[in-house]
Amino acid sequence: DGGITQSPKYLFRKEGQNVTLSCEQNLNHDAMYWYRQDPGQGLRLIYYSQIVNDFQKGDIAEGYSVSREKKESFPLTVTSAQKNPTAFYLCASSRDRGASGANVLTFGAGSRLTVL
Amino acid sequence: AQSVSQHNHHVILSEAASLELGCNYSYGGTVNLFWYVQYPGQHLQLLLKYFSGDPLVKGIKGFEAEFIKSKFSFNLRKPSVQWSDTAEYFCAHKLIFGAGTRLAVHP
Predict the structure, then answer these.
(1) Do A41 and B99 touch (CB under 8 A)?
(2) Which tens digits make up the pLDDT trace of B56-78?
(3) Of A32, A89, A94, A96, which is closest to residue A60 (Cα–Cα)?
């Protein structure tokens, strides 16, 4: 059953700690994306990767880091530099790697991060 | 910067009522417009998309959207909503999403 697996589903973190959210896809998609979802603000793009070992910043990349060492994996690290990290994080992938934006996104179930 | 605006944040309708959700996007070269839906407890999923051609696009579950180039709009419509349409709806242009509209349909 193909899809995107995000883990953990819920995560609690103390201020000042880094945390890494996992995203794995078995769809053989080239491109992967991280979005942050906040109430009333929709989805905001954090980072995206069109190909292994390459990624680009989205609109709100400050305080986040990513890696793309394998095609199927795109982990997101929320660093202590992120001033307001409590949010719902969504990972997505698309078959096409083009930067044109004509890519249909397949989403994971999300990870909810709460900073205590 | 590119942006997407959704006019209604919360919509409440009775079953069988007609639905129209507004979406406007800022111009950014080629047009790649999407409506995604998030049903309670489910993943975000594609409802319909428009890249070119017939400006009236039909999607799943009886939804349709009309692209009006002169108005930079891509409004979502459904003639008769059902309780199962209760969800959050997101308009997107390329990789930019709007704030979403929460639709509640009462029996």
Answers:
(1) yes
(2) 999 999 999 999 999 999 999 99
(3) A89
- Alpha-carbon distance A13 to nearest alpha carbon in chain B (angstroms): 24
Name the minimum distance, in Å, from the CA of B83 to any CA of chain A: 23
Q: Does B59 touch chain A (CB under 8 A)?
A: no
- Residue whose structure tokens are 């605006």: B5
Of A40, A58, A100, the CB nearest to B9: A40
3-state secondary structure of A116: coil
Cα A61 from Cα A52, distance rounded (Å): 19
CB-based contact A24:A72 (threshold 8 Å): yes
Amino acid residing at A39: P
Distance between terminal CA atoms of chain B? 41
Comparing alpha-carbon positions, the chain B residue that sits nearest to A41 is B99
Nearest to B88, CA basis, from A86, A41, A3? A41
* A72-92 residues labelled b (16+ CB within 10 A) or e (exposed): bebbbebeeebeebebebbbb
Does B95 sit within 8 Å of A45, measured CB to CB?
yes
SS3 label, residue A107 = strand
State whether residue B44 sits within 8 Å of chain A by CB.
Answer: yes
N- to C-terminal Cα separation, chain A: 36
- What pLDDT digit, counting tens, does each position of A64-84 carry? 999 999 999 999 999 988 889
Q: Nearest chain A residue to B90 by CA: give it.
A: A42
Two structure tokens written together for A110 = 């999300």
